[in-house]
Amino acid sequence: MRLRQIEVFYAIMSTGSLRRAAEVLHVSQPAASKVLRYAEQSLGFALFERTGGRLVPTREARIMLPHVNTIFEKISDLKRLTENLRYARNGHAISIGCVPSLGLSIVPRVIQGYHAKHPGNELTIDTLHGPEIVSRILNHDLDLGIVFGTYEQQGLTACHIADIPLVLIDKQRTEGPVALEDIDHARYIGLSENDPTARLLDMAWEDADHAAVPLVRVRTHYMAAELVRLGGGCAIVDGLTALHHPGLPVPLPLKPPLGMACTVLFRADHALSHISKDILALLQQEIKQDLASLPAV
Predict the structure, then answer these.
(1) Exposed, middle or buried by CB within 10 Å (0-12, 13-18, 19+), for 52?
(2) Backbone phi and psi for residue 169, each to the nearest 5 degrees, phi listed first
(3) Looking at the whole model, is its pTM more than 0.70?
(4) If DSSP codes are grouped into helix, strand and coil, which group holds residue 23?
(5) What CA–CA distance (Å, rounded) separates 1 from 191?
(6) DSSP label of 265
(7) What is the rounded end-to-end Cα distance, in angstroms, of the chain?
(8) Rounded to an integer, what distance in angstroms lies between the CA atom of residue 132 and that of residue 81?
(9) If DSSP codes are grouped into helix, strand and coil, which group holds residue 8?
(10) What pLDDT digit, counting tens, does each position of 101-155 carry?
(11) Helix, strand, or coil here: 257?
């Protein structure tokens, strides 16, 4: 199949009709129908059955669809790559991905501080989860990623910039430090099992010979903090979230202390630009300042 034939097939599968597919592709319906007919002739089998004026995908079409989806994902990756290369030629553009906790606290201040000094430089910020950040860096869609945890993966360079303490937030407690075994399991709000913080805590629970089955599991530290604020229970979150989320009880340290690495990721085959280095320095400065003001930790 030629690329144009694949485009018509994909558009029909996505929209459900030849007319809407033609509109998406900005061609006439007869032109799209002609391309489809040539595609079926070259393949030697039908892609759609004509039933009551509708196009119904054949078994062969449904088998082909996942492979066609992969082709268009690669085309999308290529489009993003060419856009990034075009817009970054002058060396004054950078795209950053950060985990939600940092996107609601540190990173906006870093960007504001940098942009105030360099208003002519283009900055793009995405709030994503760790695996998404890794994927986008490897696809040239992000220049920098700021995550919690350590990532060792071929093609990536990981730069440790700080250790962020984990703290307990609980409206029913006012004094710390708090041992894991003393946390009320019936009120405990946990993080998604895929979160690096959750994996660290699971190992800590095992070391303490206590198995915590969370009342609720959430994907972000921010949501866990908001549930605590609403009186939904207690949670262990990173200290930066606890510091910047309004209306929370005083964060309490854990016994023994636990912390998460804050890591900056970038492609191993790319040297850091001067913009990236400046932003990295601001990030370290802001984190250091916040950790110094974190109470009782």
Answers:
(1) exposed
(2) -115, 120
(3) no
(4) helix
(5) 46
(6) E
(7) 63
(8) 16
(9) helix
(10) 888 888 889 988 888 887 777 788 888 888 899 989 988 888 899 999 888 888 8
(11) coil
